[in-house]
């Protein structure tokens, strides 16, 4: 794939991820703790890992986090939370994906990614607020993250099939 | 990043699992075992005839809290009519006689109070002083004034009688015996001033409650909004009927439960209707206003309480960026459209009904 | 769909969730975090600090001032029992049992409070 095409496709991925995170912010989730979310943007991260690789995925995540905190507001803290969760989850998912698709299904990888995301977020929150009490929300986040991760994995699987048929990435 | 990339390429499943385990275990270990104390600072102080509670997230929180308490005490000393001295007392003493020089703070609050008296068509009236004094609702010996006394005093209650000269920083009451009472708005002003102090010191997350008048700065340090319980007007132990989540907002309530006394089996509360001279009796038992600026919320909570559900709702809907929760005597809860998304109806007493559609 | 490695992830997720639940419940019920400390404040001065979970016999504390308040402490709870102030708001507040609960006698400038922050809401407007 030539460089221009790749750049364009990654740009499209970033904007899609951005749109998904905006749509996500419109859907209210009746959760008892902050931080519970659908993680729809993770679909794009998974797809990027599949069709490009770790480095590209990290770039997409990074740009998405920067842009969404510029557009969506929330400030420096929220950016740190989302970037830390995003990076850790991308690392974990890339490692699992590289180590062999025949060993892990996309759903499994997605669940692991969601869990890593939550843990990364909490670690950074605890670090910056110098207060590990924030981790009391971790059980709830992990359970919801696993469930969301499952569905995000399913969707990513369907999307992968559809994208492969388009042959855009050949 | 490059290293991780390489690891990804060559690692076997076993290694992947081990690495993953280590990363995740560290997370769990941290959460389970260690514990730092929170860096939030909380303090309370008796000021402005109520309890002032602050929660500040900042390394110099204690010092900031002290400065805040000093500022509130200063505002109190200027605007009070319950203690001698102060500019409002001077204004009242010179009623019907002469213009009085006033400081910037008093002029601002006076002008705001006059505006809200006008907007609410006198449901909130800054010249309610003579009635408040006669009922003694804030004194230790409240009483029910005679009908003729109330009729006499009603003649003195009229917000149009306050003349404010912003250019010369002076003001005057038209008739002798008139009394300006900023009790329904001064706490709101104080809260706004406090937020400015927080901002000046670079605080990003803090909350202050002046006897239930709440103003929040930012959200909580983790970015989530502050959750604020709306007190059950008929509950005893501080129970509440609903929860709203806010950032950078003022939340102020008025209700017949705050101060009241009973005489011959009748319950008299402290919010007087400037039109009748008696405690407001329009079917509301509690109102809560949410706005950006605390002084607005403070004035409007009193005004809407006096106006009642229909009129109060109309007033709120006519104003930009102001939301409200109304609780009626027949235990129904009404919420303006802008709050419906974040309002959580939670009634432990099971006595109230949330009316979503009117 | 499900592959062998998925079981590892699943198992890991379950262990992690269980561990975090246990960790949090230990954290919540351990040490300083769980103890309920009540403070009595008069004229902006703290005059007494009591670990109300450690109280075995009910006890009364009299706070003297312009008006007088009697504070009653029992195991795990505290309240204004009697007051000779005119409004009796403090007595009507009833028992304080949870962290962050507060009762105030304005005329006497007395306040009792259980230290800490409520799990439920940050603050109540009234």
Automatic annotation (TrEMBL), chain A:
It holds the Pfam family Hpre_diP_synt_I. InterPro entries: Hpre_diP_synt_I, Hpre_diP_synth_I. Keywords: Membrane, Transmembrane, Transmembrane helix. The chain crosses the membrane at residues 7-27, 39-63, 75-97, 109-129, 136-159. This is Gx transporter family protein. It comes from Acetivibrio mesophilus.
TrEMBL record, chain C:
CDD domains: DUF1312. InterPro entries: NusG_2_sf. The keyword Membrane applies. It holds the Pfam family NusG_II. Keywords: Membrane, Transmembrane, Transmembrane helix. The chain crosses the membrane at residues 7-27. This is NusG domain II-containing protein. It comes from Acetivibrio mesophilus. The lineage of its organism: Bacteria, Bacillati, Bacillota, Clostridia, Eubacteriales.
């Amino acid at each position: 794939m030539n460089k221009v095409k790749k750049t364009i496709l990654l740009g499209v991925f970033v904007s899609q991820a951005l749109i998904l995170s905006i749509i996500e912010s419109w859907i209210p989730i009746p959760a008892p703790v902050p931080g519970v979310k659908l993680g729809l943007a993770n679909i794009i991260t998974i797809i990027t890992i599949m069709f490009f690789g770790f480095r590209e995925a990290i770039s997409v995540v990074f740009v998405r986090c920067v842009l969404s905190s510029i557009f969506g507001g929330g400030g420096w803290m929220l950016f740190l939370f989302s970037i830390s969760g995003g990076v850790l989850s991308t690392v974990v998912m890339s490692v699992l994906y590289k180590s062999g698709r025949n060993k892990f299904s996309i759903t499994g990888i997605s669940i692991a990614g969601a869990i890593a995301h939550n843990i990364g977020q909490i670690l950074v929150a605890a670090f910056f607020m110098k207060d590990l009490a924030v981790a009391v929300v971790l059980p709830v986040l992990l359970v919801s993250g696993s469930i969301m991760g499952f569905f995000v994995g399913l969707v990513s699987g369907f999307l992968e099939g559809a994208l492969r048929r388009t042959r855009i990435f050949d | 990043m490059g290293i991780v990339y390489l690891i990804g390429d060559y690692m076997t499943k076993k290694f992947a699992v081990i690495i993953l385990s280590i990363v995740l275990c560290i997370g769990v270990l941290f959460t389970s075992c260690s514990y730092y104390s929170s860096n939030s600072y909380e303090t309370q102080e008796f000021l402005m005839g109520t309890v002032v509670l602050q929660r500040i997230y900042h390394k110099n929180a204690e010092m900031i809290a002290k400065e805040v308490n000093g500022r509130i005490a200063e505002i109190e000393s200027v605007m009070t009519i319950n203690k001698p001295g102060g500019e409002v007392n001077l204004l009242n003493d010179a009623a019907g006689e002469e213009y009085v020089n006033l400081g910037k703070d008093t002029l601002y609050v006076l002008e705001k109070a006059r505006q809200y008296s006008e907007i609410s068509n006198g449901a909130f009236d800054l010249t309610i002083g003579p009635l408040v004094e006669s009922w003694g609702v804030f004194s230790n010996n409240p009483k029910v004034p005679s009908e003729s006394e109330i009729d006499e005093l009603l003649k003195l209650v009229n917000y149009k009688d306050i003349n404010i000269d912003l250019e010369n920083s002076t003001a005057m009451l038209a008739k002798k015996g008139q009394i300006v009472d900023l009790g329904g708005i001064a706490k709101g002003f104080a809260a706004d001033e406090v937020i400015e102090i927080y901002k000046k010191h670079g605080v990003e997350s803090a909350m202050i409650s002046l006897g239930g008048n709440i103003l929040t700065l930012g959200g909580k340090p983790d970015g989530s909004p502050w959750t604020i319980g709306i007190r059950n007007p008929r509950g005893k132990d501080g129970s509440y009927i609903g929860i709203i989540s806010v950032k950078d907002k003022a939340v102020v309530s008025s209700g017949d439960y705050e101060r009241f006394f009973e005489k011959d089996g009748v319950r008299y509360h402290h919010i007087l209707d400037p039109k009748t001279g008696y405690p407001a009796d329009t079917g509301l038992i509690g109102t809560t206003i949410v706005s950006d600026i605390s002084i607005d919320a403070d004035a409007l909570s009193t005004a809407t309480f006096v106006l009642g559900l229909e009129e109060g709702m109309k007033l709120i809907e006519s104003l930009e960026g102001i939301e409200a929760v109304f609780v009626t005597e027949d235990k129904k809860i009404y919420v303006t459209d802008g709050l419906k998304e974040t309002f959580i109806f939670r009634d432990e007493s099971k006595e109230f009904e949330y009316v979503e559609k009117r | 769909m499900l592959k062998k490695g998925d079981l590892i992830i699943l198992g890991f997720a379950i262990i992690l969730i269980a561990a975090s639940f246990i960790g949090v419940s230990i954290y919540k019920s351990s040490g300083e975090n769980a103890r309920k400390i009540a403070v009595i404040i008069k004229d902006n001065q703290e005059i007494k600090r009591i670990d109300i979970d450690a109280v075995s016999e009910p006890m009364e504390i009299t706070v003297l001032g312009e008006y007088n308040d009697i504070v009653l402490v029992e195991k795990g709870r505290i309240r204004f029992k009697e007051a000779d102030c005119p409004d009796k708001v403090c007595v009507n507040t009833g028992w304080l049992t949870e962290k962050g609960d507060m009762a105030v006698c304005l005329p006497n400038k007395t306040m009792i409070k259980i230290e800490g922050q409520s799990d439920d809401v940050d603050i109540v407007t009234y």
